[in-house]
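for ur thesis appendix - Metalloprotease. copy paste whatever u need, i formatted it the way the template wanted (i think)
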Amino acid sequence: MNLTFSRDEVQDLLIAWLALGVAFTLLLERELRSALLGQVGGLTLSAVVQTLVVSLLTVGVGFLLHELAHKVVAVRFGQVAAFKADYRMLGFAIVGALIGFLFAAPGAVVHRGRITARENGLIALAGPVTNILLAVVFFVPFVVALLAGTSGILWDLARRGLQINLFLAGFNMLPFGPLDGRKVRAWSTLVFLAVAVPSILLAVGALFLIPF
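the 3d part is after this line
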């Protein structure tokens, strides 16, 4: 398997990673949004930096590995594959976060070549499965931190990493539009249901049961 990255692709990945980190930071730091909008609000540099670091290491890494999983599997099946950032949607994500909501569609791995429905389904499935595995990785420190009453950046990393990766998996398994779930369902309804149902339920649980 020959996995290569062009300069433009690396640039797109890095810009999308940074833009998502900034957008998520704006969403979480109300004082920062208030300051940027010219409103009164208390703002500390350390809080902003900590939130940015957490955002880059959770939502940013979750996004990066999700997209790289698509590419790895696509290349494994003989496809020419590369990530293409959607700069319009990245800008929309930042503007949206600035006013208090976030819809992130940073881009996608575009692949071409002869392919079967099964291979296309497996390429799509690779992203959400990667987020589920990342959620498992974050689950252990989350439980430890929760039981120990830990606070600070380690607690933020654990809960955000778990929450974001469960959400990314569940959201992307929805069978609509360009989302991965639609491609998986087109290949196999059984596989789709086996992955989508628990993923979506866990995503809903992560949003409502894990402290935001």
